[in-house]
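Sample 1 of the test manifest.
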Amino acid sequence: MKSDIAFGQYCEGDSLLHRLDPRAKIVLAVLYIVVIFLAESVASFGLLLLFSAGLVAVSGISPRIVLGSMKALTFIIIFTAVINIFWMQGETLLFALGPVEVYLEGIVNAVLIVLRIMLLLICTSMFLTYTTTPIALTDGIEQLLAPLNRIHVPVHEFAMMMSIALRFIPTLIEETEKIMNAQKARGADFTEGNLLQRAKALIPILVPLFVSAFRRADELATAMECRCYTGGAGRTRMSVLRYDWKDFAAIGTVVLLGAAVVVLNILVPGIGLAM
Amino acid sequence: MATVELRNVSYVYNKGTPYEAKALDNINLTMTGEGITGLIGHTGSGKSTMMQLINALLKPTEGQVLIDGVDIWSEPKKIRQVRFKAGLVMQYPEYQLFAETVEEDIAYGPRNMGLSEDEVQKRVLQGAEFAGLHPDLLAKSPFELSGGQKRRAALAGVIAMSPKILILDEPAAGLDPGGRREILGGVKKYARESGTNVIIVSHSMEDMAMYCDDLVVMASGKILMHAPCADVFSRADELIAVGLDVPQITRVAYMLRQYGVDIGRDVYTVDWAFDKLRSKK
Amino acid sequence: MKNIVLEAKNLSFEYPGDEDTKPVSALRDVSFAIEEGSFTAILGHNGSGKSTLAKLLCMIYQPTAGQILLNGRDMTAEGITEKDIMDARREIGMVFQNPDNQIVATVVEEDVAFGCENLGIPSAEIRRRVDEALEIVGMRKYARHAPHKLSGGQKQRVAIAGTIAMKRKIIIFDESTAMLDPLGRKEVMDTILRLNKEDGITVLIITHYMNEAAMADRVIVMNEGKILTDGTPGEVFSQPEPLWEVGLDVPQTTEILYKLKKDGYDVPLDVFEPEQCARIIAQALERGRS
């Protein structure tokens, strides 16, 4: 079951977000990032916060999982907050600790920046990792970038490489575990000794792993050739991605959201982001 | 010779997660170390888990594993010593070879045991001999060997550790009949001459019938039978019921009873069947 | 006389050597013809040349000498291009030994579609063929599963589905059951038999399991790069001595009958079913020695 972890953080589901076209979701993620960076005022951030909460609700993914994923960012969040609170100068001095002066603007700024980081994370995970399988993402990227083929960028080959890598990650993880067990049974110890000794202890694992990866690559290449693979030219696909009204509606919504954020920035300026 | 004992052993994978799965369910088993014990059961019956428990790669969720009467997890810091005592040869062991020469590869285990260099050399030669590996091959790169030779080099690497218990997971997998006979015949000879307690895990009933003295049959995490070969194969219908095979000749003997010829239900080699038939007339 | 779909004429193959090693001859002057819809087993121990033969027939290797004729067309003739070989591969496919190393996609149905996609078949048609192929191998309900979670036998059935979705007429199985457990082996062999009997696909299996070879219509035994014997399973296994000499086995049913025959009983040797074998033994014992 460990091998599931490597498969990204995809959460099985059948929500509206899961069913959107992967290309649309990539576009949505990019647009939404732009919208997040457009937001300046407390009011527009409030709107985005509401919208993001709505996304989580629609996806059907437990908010606990989403908030849990923020843990990884704890350090960055605290660091950014501290810097902004103590170094930002403003008009409304709240209090001073010796030479360090803390302004209201600093605190607002810190809160908004932290919010921005969290929103970025929620949006990319909501549109991409949580609701889209890695393979659908690869497909989406391949087709979005297809025009680059004309200027001889090997888009198909990159996409094929990516999907084969995704296919073999669980296989290789399983294999690593097997080899580790085999060497442990011969008395290998990966936990003791200094750095050099530990690095040396890895050789009995890495060598067989590489040998096996090359063997697999070789056999896979033969198998693909036997299945008439000759690269991207002339290839068709079984599942053709098709945009439907849902995708256009979703993109429309995010564009409207962007407009609303700009309007809110102007109408309800209040104290806003200074950077 | 060593005694392996499992007392009320259970093992659960991914305990406390949605993927929780019970692999072994309150197992009690004693293997006294005379001859070769075969461990059979289809994929998912718990036999691989059992193998890894004896070798201390896994720690029982409940219960105890004892070797010569000592709980192997009584001193977790010395768990490597247990692995030296209970040598494990995994399935397709040739894929674990890594060193520059065959000799270095075989020496890996003995060196990890902290033996003197003289002793390591002695063990390497001993291991190679028991595994049927020609001394000329020792200086070669393991990657230059043929498939069968690689398998034997990997086997030598574990035998060189002189374990008291030798556990082999599908030692003949993927080999042709000649290769199977060489490897399994070698293991049998090794068991007899060194007095090592050998445990073989395999799917091949024909091989098990030929080389094992007693069999442990596993199904759904429990022990179904533990008895000498003849007794196990005389219960062919039970084996078939849990999705296992019996040697073709055992089926023939079984059917013969329907035609009024009783040569016993415990026949599992062709020679034995023939002798019985001959004494019939 | 049935149509000959695949023919090897005086086929030889050498693995090229480098500075330190001499070229190794793997196949010497091998000839045989395969009839449309037949089921042939190529039997031999490791290193007998049987896998090399499979790779030659699939045009993965080029023979050192001799010809391979696919539907009467010489695939080794001068002027045969990469494209001709690609076209030939629409007719002949291969299922390999290691189930993991031939699956390309992360979803079962995507993998089955892979070959068809390479041929440039329209999407709707691929969809239809993939569903049909998965149905034939009994893997329809796993269509959306991840291949790495399937058992070995299931993975091989996915690989077979990929081949039949391409509507190939000839399938070569290169030790496709060697890495499977008995259940997986049975799943795969049942599928192969069904393809051959019901769908008329020409099947060649490369194997060292006697019981599998006994299921075929014809057995070709290879030894040291040459054909040792060639005939029906009955003909081949009823002469066990040459097989024993090259380190092969015969089914246990044949072995016991062989011993009885040597002992003076009049019994046939081409019996592979335990039930039938028991009946014959019982009758022979009643008749007594001849």
